Queue: 2 jobs
Job 1
Amino acid sequence: MSEVSTAGRTGLFRPLSTAGAVATVLGALLPWATFVFNEGPYPAKATLQFFDAPFALSGFRLHLMLFGLAALVVGFTRLPGRGRVLRALGWGVLAVSAVNTVFLISNGGGFGAVSASDGAFAFGCYVGLAGGALLVADNWHASAEPLPRWKFSLPLWAAWLVLLVSFGAVLLLVAATLTAGGLGGAADPYAGPVFLSFLGAAGGLLGGLHGTGLLSWIGELSEKHRLFSVLVLLLCALGLPLTSAGNEYWMTVAANIGVYAATAIGLNIVVGLAGLLDLGYVAFMGIGAFVAANLSGAAASALGIHVPFLLAAVIAAVIAGIFGVIVGSPTLRVRGDYLAIVTLAFGEIFRRAAQNNIGGLTGGANAIPNIPQVELFGLEFNNPVTIGGLQLPGGVLYYFLIVLLVALTMVAFGNLKNSRIGRAWIAIREDEDVARAMGIRTGKAKILAFLTGATLAGLAGAVFAHKTATVSYESFQFLESVTLLAAVILGGMGTIPGAVLGAALLFVLPEKLREFSDYRLLLFGLALVLIMRFRPQGLVPDRHRRAELVAEDVELPAAPKEATA
Amino acid sequence: MSDTVQTGKPLLEVRDLCVAYGAIEAVRSVSFTVQAGQIVSLIGSNGAGKTTTLRTISGLLRPRSGQILFEGRPIHTQPAHAILGMGVAHCPEGRRLFPKMTVEENLLLGAYTRKDEGIAEDVERVYDLFPVLGERRGNKAGLFSGGEQQMLAIGRAMMSRPRLLMLDEPSMGLSPIMTQRIFDTIRDLQRLGTTVLLVEQNALAALAQSDYAHVVDLGRTTIEGTGHDLLADQRVRDAYLGEN
Ligand SMILES: Nc1ncnc2c1ncn2[C@@H]1O[C@H](COP(=O)(O)OP(=O)(O)OP(=O)(O)O)[C@@H](O)[C@H]1O
Ligand SMILES: [Mg+2]
């Protein structure tokens, strides 16, 4: 291990890191903009002068202040994993500073906004950037430090309490992230940058906590108390309407994310487990959506019959599954790149067919509008509900339905992954030839992967149709398939939290970045390239992939080499 | 070494096998038999068609012509999983483990076609045979040394409870000592009732361990005899044992 790089850095005092922390604090206190923007001050109290009101900091400057103070304190302790924590904080500071600097420059009409104009000075951003850079640079080799492992065991009640608090914190963080920047539009003109900046801060925070070993410990704890964790997680998900995200708008956003998360988990079976590259996956969701729309009794539907929602969802899933088998069959003959082309072609065929109102089933350019809301157990799903005096916003029932959908796909995925067929899929992904030699019927297994993935997508599509009330071919473009694929890869192939996180990020970003719509794809692409370069295993890596990386740090028991055996 | 005489119904019989990759005829005319309970090897130089022969027996390739009979029944038209189900296991050239999976997961994949209760027991049996694997059952297969990987590859193949175990160059890249260990293991497996079809470049070691052997040359079986006889055969000595 690189002792050279850590030598001399193990002392208590780390001048560069401390300087970075101080710079970060100063950066937070310095003014960031030379004038007040037309749409309103950005950031809040942007032109606040040095030390005007150190306790009145808000928004990203408050984040910077907290990060700076944290780095200052951590820099003087013997915290295990200190370098990792400092580096993560540094990245957070850099990200927050960079986002806001870029926005101030572009929206403020040039460098005048962040330097000097009309006798006003604003150098906060440079000091902040320098602080972050110092922290990162001084701890560049922190990966050489072993990740601290928390070993102490807890009595059952304490473990449950820790899990409860942790998942509660996750819920609050999710709610805060979702609502960061507000609704956008005239009310919140800076939704985009505020959100991105918050994302940077959240990333830095999580990275810092990970550096202390806390997150791995909680992960192990939740694995040990699996059932309890799943229940608490479900409760937390159902509790989102009670947080700051508890209004109709955020419920809708969250429900949309959920639909795509469920679809991404389905795709994760095909791509992540079986290793089959599917570039037309969203078509299966589309098939499910159109089937459900036609069975919903909507005026524009060709069939004109109204099937109860649950039955319609099952039929949609089955029909999508059948198409999955039809598309999957050529995989018996083609491998690798050719499969990608076959699925790409299928996706395009589906979209063209839907655009041309094939069989009068898709409404063509008119789409199928006015799909009636779901009615289950006498509840109308668009309406707000009151449970025991608790006022829940409209759309909350759809949100609950979709949480259930995501939970269902998670359970399906988890069980499949650890089953016989799951092992067969992974074997096919790793080495198809040997998989055959092990007696795995690779053709059958691949078709089964397509069938399962398509069925889940069809189910998600049926919910989607009722939730959005309009189904149009435009929702099922190639770009959607690519985004789903990106969600799977970004989050970490073959893992559930990965797919959910990836879907959440990729489908919330467009929502949040509407004012940057021209650059959206560019930013997307850039983020993907960066992640693939620096974290190829994805945000939440698979156990196998993680083991690979751990293996570099951990001393293995000396393997007897055959020469000496 | 026992100089067994070839009698009775063979476990495996390959008749005039011809296998081609497109226009390339890798195997032109290969014929041999494997008696139950024996260790039979195929030796021959690079590109002679040994691997192709094994892959065809296990159903990964289809022959252009010829027949493969296992216990008298033709299997060359059967799919790979059916052949494995009949009791023919293939330990491929270059080990081909699933490197990202643990030892245990590799072994479980070896038992993929089985649905009986005895799988866990057989996993333990492999650990008894190779204690190194048992000590590190949770480790990723890719982290093991070449010799240990070969043990795991053999263990994985044994997990299907085969009656015929086909090993493709198990000594590849191993030191003489480790090679000896692997061959000792093969002997043990034979003693426990498994018939072995062995493909080897290392002709000297293979012949010394084999009850019977065939030379494959340019896609044809040429010379055959007991391991003992071939070791003494001048043509074999000249061509494959590095003597002039
Ligand atoms: N997939 C393939 N496509 C085309 N030709 C192949 C393929 N695999 C093998 N061959 C050719 O078939 C012939 C026999 O190959 P094979 O691998 O069976 O030889 P081998 O006896 O196992 O050799 P070695 O001892 O080097 O492993 C060679 O000429 C080889 O180039
Ligand atoms: Mg070979």
Job 2
Amino acid sequence: MKPAPFVHHSPRTLDEAVAMLGDVGHDGKVLAGGQSLIPVLNMRLAQPAHLVDINRVAGLDTVTVSDDVVRVGATVRHASLEKNTEAYAVLPLLRQALRNVAHPAIRNRGTTVGSIAHADAAGEMPSIAVLTGAVIEVVGPAGRREVAAADFFEGPLMTVLEADELVEAVRFGRFAEGTRTAFLESARRHGDYALAGVGVAVDVEGQGGDAVVRGARAAYVSVTDVPVVVDLTEAVAGQPFSSAWDGVEDLVQAGIAPEADIHASSEYRRALAAELTRRALTTALSEVAS
Amino acid sequence: MTTRQFGSPVLRKEDPRLVTGNGRYLDDLGHDAWEAAFVRSPHAHARITDIDVDGAVEVEGVIAVYTHEDLDGPAGDRLPLLIPHPSIEAGRTGYALAKDEVNHVGEAIVMVVARDRYIAEDAAQRIVVSYDHLPPVVGIEKSRDGAELVHDDAPGNVAAHLLQEVGNVEAAMAKAPRTLTLDLEIERSACMPMEGKGVLAQWDSDEQRMRIHSSTQTSTGVRAAVAAKLQLPLAQVECIAPDVGGGFGVKIMHPWPEEVLVPWAARRLNHDVKWTEDRREHFTSSAHERGQLQQVTVGFDDDGRLLALDVKFWHDNGAYLPYGVIVPIITATQLLGPYKPQNYRVEFWSLYTNTVLVTPYRGAGRPQGCFAMERTMDAIAAELGIDRTEVRSRNFIQPEEMPYDQGLLFQDGRPLKYDSGDFPASLAKLKALVGWDDFTVYKEEAEAQGRKVGLGIGCYVEGTGVGPYEGGHVHVETSGRVNVATGLTTQGQGHQTILAQIVADELGVSIDDVHVTTGDTRRMPYAVGTFASRGAVMSGNAVALAARAVRAKALRIAADALEVAEEDLQIEDGTISVKGAPHASIALSTVAVMSNPLRYAFDESAKAATQFAGAFDPDKPPVADDDEPGLEGKDFYSPTQATFANGMHAAIVETDPITAEIKILRYCVIHDCGTVVNPMIVEGQVHGGVAQGVGGALYERMEYDETGQLLNASFMDFLIPYASEVPHIETDHLETPSPLNPLGVKGAGEAGTIPVSAVIASAIEDAEGFPIRSMPISPNELWDLRRHQAANPRSTNPRSSTTQESA
Ligand SMILES: Cc1cc2nc3c(=O)[nH]c(=O)nc-3n(C[C@H](O)[C@H](O)[C@H](O)COP(=O)(O)OP(=O)(O)OC[C@H]3O[C@@H](n4cnc5c(N)ncnc54)[C@H](O)[C@@H]3O)c2cc1C
């Protein structure tokens, strides 16, 4: 389990990085936190001749909160985004989801943008990107372009990124005032990739005892090939907070297409996804109630 | 006065070194060694038609590429069948490098030696092996039906077949008022030490000497095997186990192909060669354990008393049988636990499959046996509507029946005769600890809140400390430093501490002055190894005996010098003094000086022992006829039979009513390993054992597909429990000393692991209200079982639907 030989490039500026990728991108890979790429190299599942290491590129490690987005640079670690109180205040779903990404040691190295670029169907953050209507900032030899998260993912481990492009940042969209969120997942062991997971954004109008549910949307982990948003509004609008949410079942089942692997059957994942959705709705609303 | 070390929770002497990163594991050694990598079979069963190494030889930095054809002499012969047994009908072992045929994914075919491991892997990747595919035999059922064969000359895929019977099962079963039959299944798991295997070989061509470091549980075994394979005089081979990052059984197997090949290549190349196993190799090329199908038929009376027990099981031994039938023999014998079956028949078939070897893994066949017996106990209780602990009590061997001979032959070829234990007392302690009698109320309350909880129990007896022997050597230096050597190896258990505790007490010295060396054939060439929970029993008693010899000699010399009788002397804090007259004393270090008559005074203290130093008897030689110079002693401990530890565990689990997720709420252990040398270390062993048991119960399984590919050969997909999955473990001890050895100790190493699958199955069964007959169990499987149960309320288990219950 040693990687095949490669040349390690360590650009200091974004321009340098883009230029290098332009030269070697066809036979190269961007190296961010390495938590997904290094195992792939060690097992020789990929043997790129070049690695363009972006860890020393200046200016990529910042989180910026503005009126309508949280912008996360390419080398921001999962852990630092998770702990970012400003981001948490405006978009708690980020921390709610990030807590479920692997273990602390991996979150200390792995990057949130890297996990979106990696596009693992079992990754939490691609789903969060889609649920928040994120925009992916892409840069390459041909210049900059922006891609909506909903259009970014093409399949498991496949995105619209060209070999010579890199993601500079992801702008997660903030929800409208009154939106409540929760993220729940079920994994075989604490911190593992989930058998199924769900993030929900529930639209609530009013305060305290007068509050009513207006709508809800959910995005799933490990039960769809590419992250999709399932609109649950039809089943939840007007329901009391104490609802058992049985009405969401059909919408969830229509929206997901889980596959079986050695850890769980597709039927079980379906049942999990539905139950997690019900529990997530209750969790999201329990915060508004308290 | 010196505080007694034996029995106190002395902090581990090895920890400051290990936890500060100063351990020296195999890969920390041999920086200048060339490194080896292997081309391993990607197929489970195939004939090798061609090996093209041309691409590899061209790679810059490659030193040598070897296939089976290159292996000369015994190195090219089949690897040994280590433990022959009359039940073995077709004992097949592999070659160090595959010859013509491969029988499991991961079998080594080509060895590449290069300047470093990176280059070796680059080169290995360029080697092209051509194969003719043969039908893979995977899974016990496929093997048992015998339509396709793993080895052409092993009909029915049967490696071994054994039947043992005590009493008359057929007659007793026919007369039994009630019978039950259970079909049971246990999946494969594996030891998975954090450090894989590894070998460093250093050939000294001037001295024609081979030094091997191996991450092994038996350095004497490796030494002897390499000497035989390389046709070297034993005296020219030495083997040292450095710090070893866990073994759990897989490293008692030997010689691994690499343990032959690395020294073989080092001699041939006249250069140090090293191989460090990586995790993927460990998954597919080391060894697994556990996989069995079992059928138990039990006859009992209306009170739940056993009248007859008839067990058949099929044991998956993988592609080869180098470790013989130790694992199924242990299952067959240790299945009986603390019970008296009256009449017992056990028959097993050890079967070949095209999967990696099966050799002992902590518990070594016992978890399977315990599972069979304890599932049976629960089934009897359910059938009769009697409390599960009551059924067990009624079948216990009573303390006054000790020693109790089960009438079978154990894994050491000696009688399965329990030496000690008080099972009713252990059960009473367990029930108190877990709150057995209050659980019904707790369960009703939980159910009222929509929660599902269950309580489970499992009991076991563990034959530990099997022979043939272990040795101890104790040497007091003139500085007062005490060197202790024993040949068995250590993998983190704390041997350096407990052996030092024992010697410190025996000699009357401070534990800080005692320094223990294990697993180094230069220091103790006669030894067996670390397995079967034998460290404390075998080496503990051996070093105690050796220390007693040293003590006797020290007292003799001191008595002479102080002109008193030996009986009047005591040793405390490294000083020998006259009882009641402490000023009349002599330091043990001085006695060490006096024990060795000298010509040369190399330091101040040595002057006292030189020829002109003082009075001596001119009629006696400086060293008496029956004596030796130096204050040292050596002795061996060799018992007539194993000692039998025992324990009982109980757990409370909660299962999610919808997602079927399984959570262990409480885990309680009562443990009897005889006299406890160090309670903290015993507790640590129990904790680690339970953690591995939880892995086997809820997480770990080897997912082979029907073609023999291991689908989960990484820690991403082979689920070892993290700390977050291991419950808090509550322990209590019972000490019934073994009458068989001077220290009264019984083994503790494997205990924690043995009953966990049985206990968790019992608890889930209690929570769910239907039988659990197959382990491990995942949430998905429990969810499937619930659905199956809802559709077929009378059935027991979809995976063992043949179970019949008759009144
Ligand atoms: C034991 C373990 C458990 C894990 N569990 C989880 C989990 O539960 N959930 C989860 O989501 N993840 C999990 N991960 C993965 C972890 O989150 C990774 O960090 C993440 O998926 C990738 O981020 P990285 O920075 O490490 O990327 P790298 O490993 O460096 O790169 C991954 C891929 O993305 C590409 N890439 C990275 N950054 C960019 C960029 N800016 N532009 C273009 N391409 C880029 C790389 O070229 C590579 O192909 C786990 C990892 C491990 C080792």
